[in-house]
């Protein structure tokens, strides 16, 4: 099979007609517009000429004085009279003309590049208009490509951007009234005088239409947001870090619940950041449209956080963490957003937090009911029932297990980038195909390319089959070219035919946690670094995976595989610690499958000294874990290597 022909065939996108474009370019070169050289001339009889003739400038060579004289306007006895007022004809040629010096006395065979009106006395250049400097960051629709224009058209949501626009609509007025009432009910602020040397922070209204997992309008939400960008460190705030749940943790909870036949429930905290208590003194302006009559000169002093403040996420997490500790939960040391509670009967409830969204599961209904009641007493919450739509991930809890996928998000990506009607392909990248920087390639719009790659990155939260191509094209975001964009669009074409793909965690699946590790030796054609990849399976479904270029240049496949295995072992240690918090019986040795026999031997004994003497000591801790019996590398064939999908473009039958 000819891969070159396959690559050219599969990576084509769009229709271009180079012949037509070359013809148009040559035709434009043959025409010289006089728009830049139009002038106003005054004759001896003080007549005003409107415009000179348009010079077609067909760039033909004159072949005698007859042709030269024919190009001089009627009424001129000779060339000297025609260029009256100038010592030489060259000085009459406007600046910027490519044929300066082509009008001279006695010229017989020179090219005539400009035609002057009779009795011309003075020639004025028309100034070239340029956009003002303050518009340098903006482009018009005429400068957008077809794909960019389509994307801009579909990004617009129709939500009002300004208060004056929102206040005219009844539904947005009700949303803003609800927000103000909730803020006052929560005792978020109080009116006060502005202290000396203190400053106020502005606020603005942000209106957003919320949609459910089916793409239907759920509600219209108006949020009062502080302009936190005006805050100064060590004055208005100190620490801002707040942890959020890792996707690996969420997938492990789902896999465990599917295996144990537990149900996962979801809660949503209303106006989350308004519960966070502030330790700093912060003053804000009165919101537009809701000023207190007769007290317009006063400001609001915040007692609790407001959306937009830099310390708001940290203040909220501190509040929810304190509530969980008070209710008897234990915070997981290896995952800060994971809280676990056990009762005397050995029952367990697991809670994970992602900002204002909470998911929890348990093997005891009473524990879940008590937890739900305590949360509703402390916070104003929405009980969403079974977990169905979480962070853009759709969840189906069925009798045979749990299935997660991102169909809604995938369709949004295809619509945003105009690929809904594209042709489907069977693999995200052409097998065996590699790309590089190619400094001489035709560049494309960086913002458009980065938006496309960023959208694909979030899709890899539950799509390990898209991981390799997304990681590959993300290496060229600094200066993308047409080839890189073609590869990215092929990934969208593959997505078009696989929008229903996801991960199924089976009920009563295998209890053991096992992994696959692999590397692509010197796979990067630019710096010759290798690529590491691993996949962990639990309940017969992938729970965590990774693709990463190695930080060093390896000398052999053995070294590359050994480094990849060490990175995989780091993840295995963390996962075993988290699963131990779940009361998950995984005390046995974790098996890691590798397709390189030399790497397996090196993990057990310091053999092959010539190949391993230079390997950094930080990678040799793999041998200690192998001796302890917590980790074991076993051999698997190339056809059974699941991690291959992370490190290289595979053939269709293998993929």
Question: What topology emerges from the helices and strands here?
Answer:
Blueprint: H1 3-10, H2 18-30, H3 65-70, H4 79-82, H5 146-155, H6 163-166, H7 170-185, E1 189-192, E2 200-201, E3 203-211, E4 217-226, H8 247-260, E5 264-269, E6 277-284, E7 299-304, H9 312-326, E8 330-331, E9 338-342, E10 348-354, E11 357-362, H10 365-378, E12 381-386, E13 389-390, E14 393-398, E15 401-405, H11 407-416, H12 446-459, H13 467-473, H14 482-496, E16 502-506, E17 514-520, E18 531-538, E19 541-549, H15 557-581, E20 590-594, H16 597-604, H17 609-612, H18 621-628, E21 631-635, H19 644-647
Parallel strand pairs: 2-6, 17-20, 20-21
Antiparallel strand pairs: 1-7, 3-4, 5-11, 5-12, 6-7, 8-9, 9-10, 10-11, 13-14, 14-15, 15-16, 17-18, 18-19
Helix pairs in contact: 15-16
Care to describe what's here?
The chain is α+β, with helices and mostly antiparallel strands and 655 residues long. It has four domains: 40-132, no CATH class; 163-391, no CATH class; 404-502, no CATH class; 511-647, Ribonuclease H-like superfamily/Ribonuclease H (Nucleotidyltransferase, domain 5, 2-Layer Sandwich), CATH 3.30.420.10. It has helices at 3-10, 18-30, 65-70, 79-82, 146-155, 163-166, 170-185, 247-260, 312-326, 365-378, 407-416, 446-459, 467-473, 482-496, 557-581, 597-604, 609-612, 621-628, 644-647, and strands at 189-192, 200-201, 203-211, 217-226, 264-269, 277-284, 299-304, 330-331, 338-342, 348-354, 357-362, 381-386, 389-390, 393-398, 401-405, 502-506, 514-520, 531-538, 541-549, 590-594, 631-635. It has a six-stranded antiparallel beta sheet with strand order 8-9-10-11-5-12, sandwiched between helices. The chain has a five-stranded mixed beta sheet with strand order 19-18-17-20-21, with helices on both faces. Mean pLDDT is 79; it is low at 1-123 and 150-156.
